[in-house]
Fold:
Amino acid sequence: MANGFETILYEKKEHVACVTLNRPQALNAYSVQMRDDLYEVLRAIKDDDEVRVAIVKGAGDKAFCAGADLKEFLTAPSAIEARQIRFRRDLWKLFLSVPQPLIAAIHGYVLGSGMEIAACCDIRIASEDAVFGLPEVGLGIIPGAGGTQTIPRLIGVSRSLEMLLTNRWIPADEAYQFGLVNQVVSKGKHVKTAEEMALKIASFNPDAVKRAKEAITRGIDMSLQDGLELEKRLTLGRRQPRIV
Ligand code: CAA
Structure:
């Protein structure tokens, strides 16, 4: 499939889409252009019935994503202004509204917004060289890509606070113990493992897959009673995609 993006690569094969963060010279740092490219590609994925699963990965040997592009971010007139520019498009809400499963294939540095992008995905496969960190507070800011909400839902409040308030970076095996990643695989095998998993998911009924994802990802934010109602509706085949 044609690409046409500046900061990402997009491919689609056998019902599996693959989005590659593609600024390896800057460790795939998240720039305003990357926000726009991801926004466009995620909207396309959402509306594409041929896509049953999508993988998000990073180009190059060193990083999934080393966080916000600091050259861009720190040269903005102020951190607030830099944030406001980024909030003009709510990429994170869009990420979390994609009905198909998203698998993050992670290696190397996974920092700041990089960790938040991974947290917006449903399943995380990490290469053993992956390192996770939240440097924001050390830079005088707080995460603004959903991380204060998504990450505690994955690893709990006190582990999230420890990572954020102390800027301690954790290796892949500790991320696995925390429940931040589903699997740790040998160095460089993360993409192949993610592809195998994606093909397996893509072999199942796509509507059942979407309903299963919706039941769990929406239900987790509801009371048990409301969650059970949601499950009942979805069991009867009534999906209600979130509108972004
Ligand atoms: N933004 C822009 N460029 C970055 C970058 C970033 N976040 N991280 C790395 N790069 C660039 C470097 O400037 C360097 O470019 P040049 O060769 O042109 O100088 C290139 O990528 C390679 O990086 P290093 O030479 O620094 O590689 P290293 O192996 O020595 O160190 C690293 C790797 C420890 C990740 C280090 O690059 C680093 O600390 N990067 C910054 C990490 C960070 O703090 N990210 C921001 C998190 S906060 C956030 O994401 C929230 C938010 O919204 C603001």
About this structure: The beta strands are 8-13, 16-21, 53-58, 63-65, 102-106, 109-111, 123-127, 131-133, 170-171, 183-185. The chain has a mean pLDDT of 94.
